[in-house]
Design brief:
The complex is a heterodimer of chains A (about 350) and B (about 90). Chain A has about 350 residues and is mostly helical. Chain A is about 60% helix and about 0% strand. In chain A, α1 packs parallel to α2, α2 packs across α10 and α4 packs parallel to α14. The longest helix of chain A is centred in the last third of the chain and has 32 residues. Chain B is globular and about 45 Å long. Chain B has a 3-stranded antiparallel sheet with strand order 1-2-5, with no helix packed on it. A two-stranded antiparallel sheet of chain B has the order 3-4. Chain B is mainly beta. Chain B has 1 helix and 5 strands; from the N terminus they run βββββα. In chain B, a hairpin with a 5-residue loop joins β3 and β4. The structure holds FE2/S2 (inorganic) cluster (FES) and fe (ii) ion (2 copies). One fe (ii) ion binds next to α13 of chain A. Chain A: InterPro entries: Haem_Oase-like_multi-hlx.
């Protein structure tokens, strides 16, 4: 992937630093503003750029930036704001015993009535809206499960075994065509979208970037490993039912079984993963480390809250007759979505 | 270092999860009464035990929508007067 367009002084400083190879001096960076960090385009993009150095990096950036002390110091400042905002948003979590962890997670992730992205997509979304939805999810789904792999060396015993049982399935038991990220790539190409990782980064708003940034922050800090397990449990527990709606929506729009496989697969897979995540992973982790229970629930609550905000942005934009993506900047077709309908049955 | 022979898959286990499905692991095969193979698709599967899944025999999470309750252990058999009336 290539470096994105800056969205403000902070992301400009990071991006220019990486592009020019000049050391980023924290002291010289713009003062971090006190807007809502969870919706701040500049801050969330700067964080995304810092985190992507730990995944596949940027074609136009020296890989050594991953561990550059100046950049890490700046990232730490941004993370402090981000984590504080996440904790303020979710409020203090109770310390519960290991036996109560699954029920507490179920309560945090229960479906509520009211506007839901899944229901909109199932019954009303246009093909343009479905494509936008897929573009929003692409930054995570094309590296699906990767953030959680960082937790493997940080867990032990039953919790570790449970995480690995989930990850094996996410990675298609080691068979590339079954890997969930690959199934997503297939869905993208059936929809005529660019499957190159990060192709649409410039078009993703802060509310979408914040979800992936949260995963990366939890994943890259051992201190937050319990939050990462709680986050994964929340993902899995809130997955089967919405994915059946996404699959139905795509079928309604003419998607064939190859196009919908990613969603159909998740209905079945995540019904398995949610049990393993809540009981065997989070339950065992808290049984072993009772002091981590509040962080498990924090991770789940943060995941629900940010996921809800990201979905609300899509629904609100569409209700206003607008696109949920940031406008295309610059010349060329990069980041542009196809305008054609999906011809019935042609997706294969 | 000696090479172990390829390990046999462990015998199948069935684990009831509280208020949810049965997880099936290990060396198992799912077949129809006629002996036709049903593709499990993954090494660990969740079998619906609430009766309401739309992808039976597998669980699709519907149990959460209907408030399905079932213990993770054997349901205790205790005499219940209301049962007696129904018999
Ligand atoms: S047990 Fe999950 S749908 Fe029946
Ligand atoms: Fe998955
Ligand atoms: Fe999953």
């Amino acid at each position: 992937m290539r470096l994105p367009e800056a969205r403000g002084d902070l992301s400009a400083a990071v991006i220019e630093g990486l592009r020019s190879g000049q050391a980023v001096e924290v002291a010289h960076l713009p003062k971090l503003r006190d807007t809502d960090p969870l919706a701040d385009e500049d801050l969330q993009l700067a964080l995304t750029v810092c985190y992507e150095l730990h995944y596949s990096g940027f074609e136009d950036v020296d890989d050594r930036w991953e561990w550059h002390p100046g950049l890490l110091a700046l990232r730490a400042e941004m993370e402090q704001l981000f984590e504080r905002a996440l904790r303020a948003l979710t409020g203090p979590q109770p310390a519960v015993g290991a036996a109560e962890i699954p029920a507490a997670l179920t309560a945090l992730t229960a479906e509520h009535d009211g506007p839901s992205l899944g229901r909109h997509i199932q019954s009303h979304a246009t093909i343009e809206q479905f494509r936008e939805f897929v573009v929003h999810r692409s930054l995570y789904q094309l590296k699906e499960a990767d953030p959680h792999t960082f937790a493997i060396p940080r867990l032990a015993g039953r919790a570790k075994a449970a995480l690995i049982e989930i990850q094996i399935d996410e990675y298609g038991s080691g068979r590339l065509p079954r890997m969930h990220a690959e199934l997503f790539r297939t869905t993208m190409s059936c929809l005529g979208l660019n499957t190159e990782y990060g192709a649409y980064l410039d078009r993703l708003p802060a509310t979408t970037l914040a979800v992936t940034n949260m995963l990366s922050m939890f994943a890259l800090h051992r201190r937050l490993r319990a939050a990462l397990t709680g986050q994964l449990a929340a993902f899995e527990m809130g997955s089967s039912l919405p994915n059946s709606r996404y699959a139905n929506g795509l079928r309604r729009l003419g998607g064939d079984s190859r196009a919908t496989l990613f969603y159909d697969e998740h209905v079945e897979a995540d019904a398995v993963h949610e049990q393993i995540a809540a009981h065997d992973m989070c339950g065992s982790l808290v049984a072993e480390h009772p002091e981590l229970s509040a962080d498990v629930l924090f991770g789940a609550a943060a995941s629900e809250a940010l996921g809800g905000r990201a979905s609300a942005h899509l629904l609100d934009s569409w209700a206003a007759g607008a696109s949920s993506l940031r406008p295309v900047t610059g010349p060329g077709s990069a980041g542009r979505l196809p305008e054609t309908q999906l011809p019935a049955g042609v997706a294969s | 270092m000696t090479h172990e022979p390829a390990q046999e898959r462990r015998a199948a286990t069935v684990t009831p999860y509280e208020d949810g499905p049965l997880l099936l692991r290990g060396d198992f095969e799912i077949v129809t009464p006629d002996g036709e193979h049903i593709d499990a698709g993954r090494p660990t599967v969740a079998l619906c035990r609430c009766g309401r899944s739309r992808i039976k025999p597998f669980c699709d999470g519907t149990h959460k929508l209907i408030g399905f309750r079932a213990p993770a252990d054997r349901q205790p058999t205790r005499p219940d007067p209301s049962d007696a009336e129904q018999l």
